[in-house]
Amino acid sequence: MDLPPNNNLDAYWMPFTANRQFKAHPRMFVGAEGMYFKTSDGRDVLDGIAGLWCCNAGHKRPRIIEAVKNQVEELDYSPAFQMGHHKAFDLADRLARLMPGDLNHVFFTNSGSESVETALKMAIAYHRARGEGHRTRLIGREKGYHGVNFGGMSVGGMPANRKMFGSLVSGVDHLRHTHGIAGNEYSRGEPEHGAELADDLERLCQLHDPSTIAAVIVEPVAGSAGVIMPPKGYLKRLREICTKHGILLIFDEVITGFGRLGTPFAVNYFGVQPDLVTTAKGLTNGVVPMGAVFASDTIHDAFMTGPENMIEFFHGYTYSANPMACATALAALDTYEEEGLFTRGADLGDYWADAMHGLRGAPYVKDIRTMGLIAAIELDPIEGAPTKRAFNAFLKAYDKGLLIRTTGDIIALSPPLIIEKSHIDMAVETVRRVLEEIE
Question: In whole angstroms, what separates CA 232 from the centre of its chain?
Fold first, then answer.
């Protein structure tokens, strides 16, 4: 058994983990560099999922390491309320310049879940600030994932994340999902069919009265539900309906942000302008927890009224714009820009797609979806044992030196953007051998 130095695994209640299975057969990382993790038994494991969709520049990056060391010696913490430090303003300015349109204002959080909660609160408070306090309803989407806080779970649409926690936040409804549409199998990029599902928002507007709806939140690409791509024209149609009815559109870019699709953000990739964008993960390359919400000029300016000594938005976190996180994020942005990582997904996109779709016909494969440097390999489930086949693939892949992510019976791959063609070849061949060996 692979145990930590104190030989005790009991105290740590692990998140989103089969705790009993793990503690019977631990999988421990002790180091990481570039594209690889190092296990406690001395093996190298190719990181096929960028940590958890977050280590976009890979591991042990020198510029980031130096930034963390320097910052902890200079200013380890600064209060976020009524005080500031230079790096927070520098980072917000650099981020705003990356985002197209009028998304010129950045509110810092500490995770994707907090970014979602912040954006939902901003949306409701914005309507109240402009005299439409009756707009309180929130619309999410089936199979959506927006973190694990109560607001995010409520607008999210993944049953396993919701079913144990009661009625959640009231006044929430959900659009139908776009997964499994006939004719969209083995898609590369945006699938052809299903844009009309955006009109489901019109149905909800008629059901609830559009004047009661504050915001719609969607992932441009649904990551945690199994890499579900938006059909061509779908996001544009959502934007049109939201504009028509005065509803805010929120893009959850916690996964798609910072180069995942071969552009800085999904906003760039799809050419659709939301009112709010939530981010986290790749913002600091996963090194220090941090998130950010981008807000349009219109939303920001609606709060900037009243006496100047009054707080405009009663919301924030002790660690908002933490100096360590800001320094890390600035170094991560330097790394992304200097190495062309924002567009590397576009440069490698065809090779990645060809390699992944080469698994068509492998045992149990029922669909493959790719976009940028992201892929889903959907498997036929074991009858009566959903999720077990993909979990078996996860364990087998780890033994063979590849870290994958599974959700349901879907294998998800989203490697660091520094990946080379040889790594892609290795990942695909490992998955192929895994599928040939599992039951």
Answer: 21
Rounded Cα distance, 31 and 333, in Å:
23
Residue from 194, 226, 180, 219 nearest 370 by CA: 226
389, 364 contact by CB (below 8 A): yes
The CATH code of the domain at 66-339 is 3.40.640.10
Same fold: 19-60+340-437 with 66-339: no
| pLDDT per residue as tens digits for the range 301-345 | 999 999 999 999 999 999 999 999 999 999 999 999 999 999 999
Using CB atoms within 10 A of its CB, is residue 181 exposed (0-12), middle (13-18) or buried (19+)?
middle
- Tell me how far apart the alpha carbons of residues 108 and 325 are, in angstroms, rounded to a whole number: 10
| Distance in angstroms (rounded) separating the CA atoms of residues 262 and 178 | 22
Tokens read off for 69: 């060391």
Extents of the domains making up the chain: 19-60+340-437, 66-339
Choices 3.30.360.10, 3.50.50.60, 3.90.1150.10, 3.40.50.12780: CATH for 19-60+340-437: 3.90.1150.10
CA distance 424 to 351: 8
Please, are residues 122 and 198 in contact by the beta-carbon 8 Å criterion? Answer: no
370, two tokens: 């790719």
Residues 6+ apart with CB under 8 A from 71: 87, 323, 324, 326, 327, 328
Q: Where are the alpha helices (DSSP H) in 130-245?
A: 150-155, 159-162, 200-208, 234-245
Per-residue pLDDT reduced to its tens digit, 130-168: 999 999 999 999 999 999 999 999 999 999 999 999 989
Q: Are 239 and 274 in contact (CB under 8 A)?
A: yes
Q: Which string of DSSP letters, residue by residue, matches 26-95?
A: ---EEEEEBTEEEETTS-EEEESSHHHHT-TT-BS-HHHHHHHHHHHHH-S---SSS---HHHHHHHHHH
State pTM to two decimals.
0.97
d(Cα 307, Cα 248) in Å, to the nearest integer? 26
**220 with 234: CB under 8 angstroms?**
no
